[in-house]
Design brief:
Layout (H helix, E strand, L loop, with lengths): L1 H23 L2 H7 L4 H21 L1 H9 L2 E2 L8 H17 L5 E5 L5 E7 L2 E7 H6 L2 H16 L2 H31 L8 H41 L3 H11 L30 H10 L3
Parallel strand pairs: 2-4
Antiparallel strand pairs: 1-2, 3-4
Helix pairs in contact: 1-8, 3-8, 5-7, 7-9, 7-10, 8-9, 10-11
């Protein structure tokens, strides 16, 4: 809750500074004179920018289970010894991290794992059958520690808020440029014309690309923090290093795009858009830190 309040206050402060800056530079007066309310536009952009992000976050557990076919293990009645070990390990790690015990699930697929959920005390940790069959128990435990660290760090909420902030500015700036081109360049004085819609469409694509770079950069930083968190929860760096090395030698399973950044492994075309750092960099970062 503190993290949510902090980001909302920060976003409101940024919006206030942006509004003051526009007024000081005369942009606000220009927009108002041309029938555009910059404050209303900013509020509209914020509502639109955050709504989709928060809805996705609130639905994340359901979407994750549905899209991967993950089966939640009943902690009271695990099907076998492996499931009992999984639940017990995740619960021990969650207790060490000081969070509520997550649901634990297994899904069919190539090596990967993920954590999701809107709340630290009501989350989900899922591992693939491919990961379980390709790693030792200690390596799997390190991966689980990584996912539990994501939950303890509030990474799902923080990423959602950052996405909401960049969405807000993509929507706001795209429409601001669209109004400027429509009125100042094309001299349209009646409502909004095709110049506005074409400009907004193009700007949303361009600004959206820049926003994706920002979100991807944060996503990579949180992977380093989760690796370090796993080492802390395990009491040693070596299990996480070995788990990462193992992942580097196999083809990681793809997760649905809506929560691909939540996986233990992943990537994208081009380093700037990758949700995860290269395995080699993650291992090197762990080796540099104090266990």
């Amino acid at each position: 809750m503190k993290r949510i309040i902090l980001f909302l206050v920060t976003n409101m402060a940024v919006m206030l500074v942006l509004n003051i800056t526009m007024n000081l530079l005369g942009v606000g007066r220009y927009l108002t004179a041309n029938g555009i309310d910059p404050v209303a536009l900013l509020v509209f952009a914020a509502v639109l920018g955050f709504t989709g992000s928060f809805i996705s976050l609130l639905m994340s557990k359901w979407m994750a289970k549905s899209s991967t076919g993950a089966r939640v293990i009943d902690p009271q009645r695990p099907a076998d010894q492996r499931e009992a070990w999984l639940v017990n390990t995740v619960h021990q790690l969650a207790d060490r991290a000081g969070i509520g015990r997550p649901e634990v699930a297994i899904y069919e697929g190539a090596p990967n794992a993920f954590a999701t959920g809107a709340f630290r005390n009501d989350s989900l940790v899922a591992v693939s059958t491919g990961l379980l069959s390709s790693m030792t128990e200690e390596e799997v435990a390190a991966v689980l520690g990584h996912e539990v660290s994501h939950i303890a760090n509030g990474d799902m909420v923080t990423l959602t808020l950052i996405q909401g902030v960049v969405n807000t500015f993509v929507i706001f700036l795209s429409r601001l440029v669209g109004y400027f081109i429509d009125r100042a360049v094309l001299k349209n004085e009646r409502g909004v014309g095709m110049g506005y819609y074409a400009s907004v469409f193009i700007c949303e694509i361009l600004f959206g690309v820049l926003a994706s770079i920002i979100v991807a950069w944060f996503s990579r930083q949180r992977e380093f923090r989760a690796d370090a968190g796993a080492a802390h929860l395990m009491g040693a760096r070596e299990p996480m290093i070995r788990a990462l090395a193992r992942l580097g030698g196999v083809e990681a399973g793809e997760l649905p795009k809506s929560f691909a950044a939540s996986g233990i492994a992943g990537g994208a075309i081009g380093a700037l858009f990758a949700s995860h750092p290269p395995i080699e960099q993650r291992i090197e970062a762990l080796r540099r830190q104090s266990a």
